[in-house]
């Protein structure tokens, strides 16, 4: 019995150590200037319903007629399909623009969800 429990303990420790091996746990940091974002699929595609100097609010799966409602009403209709993204300069974008957004992949779990964009591309005005 003692031999069996020793073997089980040894197997458990071996599997635990094996699971810790492999790639390092450093974060994947995307350099905006050298990013190849456009070669991969956008993380988010939607319509801008609000913007500030350094952020935009985007929704998707919302009827075009509903975009005339207030921001609060649009967010209620869009739930959970909304995202606030921080970006270095949003001056090229206006409310109503359809955009594709590539992000760092780290999001705050709120509503709307929040994150940081590495690239924003205008799809349609």
Task: Write structural notes for this entry.
With 125 residues, the chain is of the alpha+beta class. The protein has helices at 2-20, 71-78; strands at residues 44-51, 55-59, 82-86, 98-108, 113-124. It has a domain at 42-125: OB fold (Dihydrolipoamide Acetyltransferase, E2P), CATH 2.40.50.140. The chain has 2 helices and 5 strands; from the N terminus they run αββαβββ. It has a 5-stranded mixed barrel with strand order 1-2-3-5-4. InterPro entries: DUF3221 (IPR021598), NA-bd_OB-fold (IPR012340). Keywords: Signal. This is DUF3221 domain-containing protein.
Main features:
NA-bd_OB-fold; five-stranded mixed β-barrel; 2 helices; OB fold (Dihydrolipoamide Acetyltransferase, E2P); DUF3221 domain-containing protein; alpha+beta; DUF3221; 5 strands; 125 residues; signal; single chain
Termini Cα gap: 73 Å
Q: Give the overall shape, derived from the CA principal axes.
A: elongated
CATH superfamily of the domain at 42-125: Nucleic acid-binding proteins
**CATH second-level architecture of the domain at 42-125:** Beta Barrel
SSE-based structural type: alpha+beta
- The top-level CATH class of the domain at 42-125 is Mainly Beta
Query: Care to count the β-strands?
Result: 5
Determine Rg (CA atoms, Å): 22 Å
- Percent in strands: 25-35%
Keywords: Signal
Signal peptide: 1-21
Pfam families: DUF3221
Protein name: DUF3221 domain-containing protein
